[in-house]
Structure formats: C-alpha cells, structure tokens
Amino acid sequence: MAPYGSDDTTSDDRAGNDTSTGRRKAARYVVPVAVVGVAAATIGLVPALADSGDPDLPKISAQQLIDKIAASDVQQLSGTVRFSTDLGLPDLGGLEGSLLSGANRGGDGSSADPASKFTELLSGSHTLRVAADGPERQKVSLIESAAEYSLIHDGKDVWGYDSRSNEVYHGTADQHGKQQREKTPATKTPATPKDLADEALKSVDDTTSVTVDGTVQVAGRDAYKLLIKPKQSGTTVGAVSIAVDAKTGMPLKFTLTPASGGAAVVDAGFTQVSFARPAASTFRFTPPKGAKVTEGNDAAEAPGERAPKPEGDLAEGRGGFDVLGQGWNSIATFDSGAAGGLPSGKGGGDLGGFLGSLGDKVTGGFGKGTVFSTRLVNALITDDGKVYVGTVTKNALVKAADAAR
C-alpha cells in the first residue's frame, strides 16, 4: 500500500491535478461488486485517539493506525476467515449464485477457474481457509457443504481444484496475473479482511471521517478498531469498521454496515489465525486421479471465458462510463445502447417483464425508468438505455438522471 499523508493534509493536496482523481473515482463503480467498490470509497483523515476498552492498548491516532496498516508486512500466516455478504437481493432459490459464477465461466469453461468460483462470495456466508508463505506461496480454500474449492499458488504454478466436479485449473503465475489484470474489477473479489481493507484505504479526500473507535479482540488477538464514516448525506453506506492487529498492523476483521441499519452488508473476519510459517506441504498440489485438467491458456480461449477488455482507460474515468458527483455520492453512468428499456425475450418469453418485476418504476425530467435496489447498491436503467449506478439512494439516482438530461 502507498503511504498516506498526515492528518492535516489538505483536500487539494490529496486530489492533485492529474489522473489520480479519476483513478479514485473509477475504482468505486463497477457492478456488481460495488459491495467491494464502496469499501474503496474515499477517506478524509480525522485525528482521533483510541477510547479506553478491552483490551487495554496504548492510545493511537487514526493517522498512526493507517500508517501501521500501510507498514504491515506479514509474510507467513494461516487461519480461518468467515465471510458473509447480505445485499438484500431477492431470493431466487440459489439461482443468483449460479448466474454470477456462470457469467464469468462461460459455457465451456472450467468450474475450477478462480474467476468462476470467488464470485460466490458476493452472496451468503462462507468459510475460507487461508495460508501464505511469502510472495511465492499462497492458498485460499472455499469450504462448502461436503465439498471444497482451493486456489493454490506455488512458485510458478497456479492451481484451482473443485472437489465437487473433480475439475482442475492450471496456469502459471505470470499467466494468471495477466488474466487478472485483463478482467474487470467485477471479477476481482477480495477474500480476506486485508484485501477489503486495502480497497477501503486506496484513496483519500475530505468526504469521510476516520477515527479510532476503541479496541477489540479478534481471533484471540488484541486489535484497534478503525471507523470510517461518510460525511455526506444521500449515501447508502453507514460505516466501515476495520479491526487492526495491534502487534502486526494486519487487518483481522472488516465490517461494512448500511445507512438503513440492520445486519452488515459485508462482514469478513478471522475466527482463527497464526503467524507461524505453514508447512511446505500446504502448497503442494497434484491433480487427483481422473480429474479433468484445464490449462489456463485453453480456458482463456473457451467461448465466454475471456472477460471483455474495457474500452479505453477505466482508471481515468473514460472507457465507456462517466462519474457524476464526488466521494460517497459519486454515480457511475453509461449508455447501455439498449434504447427502449429492459430487454424482452422472443417466443412468449419476457425477460424485460421479469427484470422489471424486481425493480421500481420511476419517472422524472429524464423520462421513465426502473430502479433496482439492494441494501447498498442502487441502479437506475432509463427507458432510453442510460444506466446510473452508485451507493446512493433512489432519489439521488433520479436527480442525477435529471441533471444529465
């Protein structure tokens, strides 16, 4: 992570006058992972001291705690992470998970391809086992009912294994890294508290307050709580809380709560963690007998498997969408090219009718449209094909569409 400025950094200093502002804005708005994109919302640094609590730790300012996260350099660890996501999506009987994974996998892809598996983290509760031994060896296992999916990086090799289907994905570290860079952020699902915290701390400005909100114990370890809250009204985000290990500076727990209250939208935390070096055998993998093995280059060529490359530079806010507003109230907008509104099926099928039933009809100066809502992300699709998406209220989307008319 890049170093952060002091508590008295000015907004002009943070924003700069180059493409960094565009990068900060664009990082927040790629559906359907605004659940993670909102975690990347900007942070205005507010000095604060840790309240007394249990455990009893030395006082620390918000800036010092952020610096501690930035300086954290944990190389070896193993542990168990509980990862829960509650966007408040309609119950489709499990179909939503299949649609998310299938959209990334494509008809002829491998179920062991990591791009198709980790989208499952976007809904429900999951248990992950993680291990790392430096930059050359990592392992993440998604524990399912009577099944397990593992992604293993061991030197130059990257293996994915789905025990349910007995399928194996194999690629090289360079190849896998290239594929990850080519995929849209929607397929890059952070899987650990540190991943989520890194996203949350990528950019800074004055739209958010950051304080130290006491102390807590996570997985038996003493930790400080970093509390991130929007200063702006109109956002669906309530707060982001990050439990930071007092000794190592590594985030141990990440919780994102909505402005509407209730259960967390994202709650990811270690239930057990050790910073001892894992056994070398942890990272060794040999395809089981009879397993179907798909090489990474083959998977990349399979129909529907290669993710479309963005047109232009998304990092600078170009590439097909614009960003309206700033901070937590930023809204991504683009033209879907689907004039006439939601798509309709042929032969008696009515996809538009089905999708429309999941949304709310709205009108405004822009015309007519449909708003699709979750507990965090709202999206407006107008009848002339324009799309507005953000972690903002329905009214904010309508106002943005009116202003852009």
Give the arrangement of secondary structure elements.
Layout: H1 11-15, H2 20-26, H3 34-37, H4 62-71, E1 76-85, H5 95-105, H6 114-117, E2 124-133, E3 137-144, E4 147-154, E5 157-162, E6 167-172, H7 173-182, H8 193-200, E7 208-218, E8 221-230, E9 237-245, E10 251-258, E11 266-274, E12 292-295, H9 296-301, E13 322-324, E14 331-335, H10 351-357, E15 360-364, E16 367-373, E17 378-382, E18 386-390, H11 394-403
Parallel strand pairs: 6-12
Antiparallel strand pairs: 1-2, 1-11, 2-3, 3-4, 4-5, 5-6, 7-8, 8-9, 9-10, 10-11, 13-14, 14-18, 15-16, 16-17, 17-18
For the sheet with most strands, the description reads:
12 strands, mixed
- Taking all Cα atoms into account, the compactness measure Rg is 22 Å
Report, as a whole number of angstroms, the end-to-end distance. 39 Å
SS content category: alpha+beta
CATH class of the largest domain: Mainly Beta
Number of helices: 11
The CATH homologous superfamily of the largest domain is called: Lipoprotein localisation LolA/LolB/LppX
CATH topology of the largest domain: outer membrane lipoprotein receptor (LolB), chain A
Portion of residues in helices? 10-25%
Uncertain stretches? 1-53, 92-108, 178-188, 298-319, 345-349
- The fraction of residues in strands falls at 25-35%
Strand order across the biggest sheet? 7-8-9-10-11-1-2-3-4-5-6-12
Shape label: globular
* Domains (count): 2
Number of strands: 18
The string of secondary-structure elements, in order, is HHHHEHHEEEEEHHEEEEEEHEEHEEEEH
CATH architectural category of the largest domain: Clam
- Provide the residue-averaged pLDDT: 75
